[in-house]
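Risk register update: the risk of archive-format incompatibility is retired. Evidence:
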Amino acid sequence: MRSGDSVETEKKGSAIQKLCFTIWVITTHWWLCGGLAYGLRANEQQGKRMTVMQSGGRFSGKNRLIPALLVWPFALVTLLFLVRPAVAQTFTFTELYPFNSSGDLSDGGWPEAGVARDADGNLYGTTFFGGTGTGCDIYFGGCGTVFKVDPSGAETVLHSFGGGPDGSNPTARVILDASGNLYGTTAFGGAHGYGTIFKVDGSTGAETILHSFVSGADGANPNASLVADAAGNFYGTTRYGGEGCNRRGCGTVFELSATGQETVLYRFGDVPDGASPLDGVALDSSGTIYGTTWLGGTYSLGTVFSLDSSGNEKVLHSFAGGSDGANPLAAPVLDQAGNLYGATSAAGTFYFGTLYMIDTTDNESVLYSFTGGTDGAYPYAHLLVDATGNLFGTASQGGCCGQGSIFEFSNGVLTALYGFSPAPNGTNADGQIPMGGLIMDSAGNLYGTATLAGSYGWGSVFKLQLGGQSLEGQSKDASALESDNELSARFIPAAVSVPTTSAVALSNTPNLDPICNPTISAPVEVATSHQRYVAGTKAQPPLTDSFDWPDGQLSALKTDSGYMFFSIDAGLHKRQLWHGKMVGNNNSGSVVRTIGTLDNPLGSAPPVDVVIDPNPDPKVNPHNCDPTKYPHHFCYTYIGGGPVYQVPQGQVGAGTWLLVYHAEYNDPAYFLLGLAVSSDKGLHWTDIGEIIRFNMPFGYHGQPAPGAIGDPPLVVSPDSKYFYVYFLDWLKSGANTTASIARAPIAEVLQDAFAGSVHFAAPFKKYYQGKWDQPGIGGASTDLIPDAHYGGGNNVAYDTYLHRYLMLNSDSQNYSYAESVNGLEWTNTIFLGMLGYVPDIAGYAGPIGTGDDPAILGKEFYLYYTQFRGPWPGAQSVKRFTISCQ
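Archived output:
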C-alpha cells in the first residue's frame, strides 16, 4: 500500500535556447522558434544578485477560458481575461548564484536538475557542463560538476567530472546522507561509457565511483537521481539498457545495496509496460517503487508504473495523448494518503502538458491542463507536495515572458508564483528555463535552478520567498521536505509551431480519419557526437569551420554502393584552393553526402561536403553569390539542401539528381526554396533558381519571419504528373500557415533542369482557394491544416501500406503526423510523442523507408532526427525511432 513517506522525485532538465534570436544563432534555423512570442517584463534591473518583486496570478483548474490553439501574438491580451485578481501577496525572487561567474565555466554551467539542502542551509547540485575536466565526449567548458552554494551565496565546486572512469555530464540532482555525503548519477562516462553512480564527500570533495553501467542487461545512461530507503539501499532508473527497443534497450529499474552491489530489478519492454524512464522513482513504506516512462505503454506515449518488492511491474496508467496528456518526464510524488501526483510534458487540452493524480485505486484524473500562457507550459520536473497536499512545481516555458514559471496548485486552482524574464543578450537577473524541481525550507521558501541565462548566461540557483505567510494553507512544517530524496529527468522547451492565425483554409474539406494507428519505438542513436567529429576531420573538401551536420532532415538514396545519405553542414565554407580549383562560397550551408547503412548513416568513407555553386548564367539566380563581395542583403547568408530526387530511367535527365534547397537572409531573417542539380552523384551541385518565396515580401528593415520555410523533398502527385512541395508560408496578413503546397509539372521541371544550354527551375504554382494559380515566388497560399495542433517541418512521403501520404512534423520538441489520400485534404496533426526537451531539442524529422526506395514508406519505417545537446555546434548526434502502423 502507498504511504505518505513523502519521498519526492525530482526531474532533471536539459536546455538549448529559448529566445528565438538565440535559437537562430545556435542552429541557424528559425523553425525552432515556431510561433513563440515573447513578452517583456518591466523589471530591467542588473547585477549579480538581484531581488525582483512580482505578484501572483490565478488560474482555475475548472474554468480554463482559452482557445485550444493559443494565439501567441494576442496572448497577453487574452490572458487578461484568464487571470483572476492576484492574491494580496508579493513573492521575492533572489538569484543566489549565477553560473560562469568565473568567466571560464570552471564553476559549472547549465544546471539541469534541482538542488538538495542540508540543515545549515547549504545547497548542493550538479551542472551538465563546466568544471575543469576535459576527458568527456560531450564537452563544453568542462564535463560537469558537483557544487555547493552556502547561505551567503558563495559557490564551491566540490568535484569536476573528467569523463572516462570518472563519469561525466550529470543530469540529476544529488541526495544527502546523515554524514553529509552526496550521492548521484552521471548520464555518461564511467569505465564503460554508459554512466555511473557516484559518492562525493561533502567536506573534502573526494569522489568514489560506486557503479559503472555496462549497458546491455545492466542498463545504460541513468538520467535520474537516486532514492534511498531506511537501510541505505539506493534505487533509480536507466534510460537505456535492459532489452528490446531495437537492441538499445528500453531501460531498467535498479537497486544499489548499501554494500555496493547493483541489481537490475526490472527491464522494460516498450509495449505495454513502458520504455525510456527519464526520472527516478518514489518509494512507499512497504517498499513499492513508483515511476514513469517517457515512451511505451499501450499508446507509446508513456506510463506510470509500480514495482513491488518481488519485481512484479504493474502499469497504473498508459497516457493516451489528447486531453489525457503524454510523455511524463518526471517521476510521481506521494502525498500522505498514498495518492500519486505528477506532470506530463506534452499534450493536454491545450497541448502544453498537464498535472495528473492517480488515487489509491489506480484511477487517473487530469487536474490541470497548461494553457501556454502565464501559467506555464511543458512542465518537466517532479512536483513538490507539502504536508497539507499543496503542489509546487516549475514549467520550462510560458510564464509572463515565455521563459518558464514557478507555480502552486491548491484546491483546484493554479497560482503562477513567478515568471522568468527575457534575456535578449543571453543574460538576465534571474535565469530561464527551469528544468529541475523545487525544494522547500521550514520557512516555506522555495529553492531551485534555472538552466539558462542568469547574470552570466549559464544558469542560476534561485530562492523564491513566498511572503512570510502560508499560501493556500501551505504547511510551514516542511523540514522533512528538505531531506526528501528527489529525482531528475531532462527535456526541451520546444519552439511551438502553432500558426499565429488560420490562413484561408480549404473549403468543404472532407472528414478524413487517420488509419495508421501508430506506435513508436524508443529512440536509438545512429551517429554519435564523436562520430560526427571524426567525420568532420575527413570531409572533402577540407572544412574551414566546424562540421555542423546535420542541419536539416536526413534523406537517403539506395544505390549499388549502399545507402547514400544527404543533409546540410551549417558551417562556414570559405573560399579555398583544393586540387587546383577554387571551392567554397564564403557562406554558410552545403550539401553533405555520406555512404553508410540505416544503422550508421555516417559510414566510414569521407563525407562529401560541397556548396551549391552559382549557375553559370548569373541571371538565373544572382543572389547565390559571395556575401563578402556584395552589399548586405543582396547575397544569401545561408544555402543548403538535403532531400534528393533521382530522375528515373526513361525521363529527361535520367540518373541525375535534383534537390530542393533552402536559402536564408539574416537581419532580418527571411527564407526561400530553390532547386539544384547534380550529374556526378553529388560531387558538385549547381543552382538552377528559386521556386518558392513567402507571400510576405522581403524587407531590408522589416520584421523577421515567424518561422522557417522548411527543408522539403520533391513529392510526386497521385497522378504522377506533378512535383509537390510543402512549406510554411508567411502571409501578408502577418499570419503563417501550418502547411502550404505548390506544384509544377514533372515534365517541365526535368526539361528546364536538364535540357538546353541553360539549366533553370520551372515555375511552381501555389494552391490558393481551390486553384493552382498563385506564383511560387510571392504568391498567396491556403493553409492545408488550419487548425493543426502541432506542426514544423512538413516532410511528406507516400506510404504504400496505407496508400496515403504521410506528413511528419517536429517543432523541436513534439513530433506529430498527418495523413492524406490526395496530398491536399489532410487529417489534423496527430501527436506521436515528445522527443526533445531543453536543451535536448530534437529537430529535422526525416522519414526513411526500409524498402528499395527509401523515399517510399511502408507498414514500418524510420524517422531520423538531430538530437541537440548543448550549444550548437556542440555534441549533437543523430537518432532514429521506428514508426509502426497497426
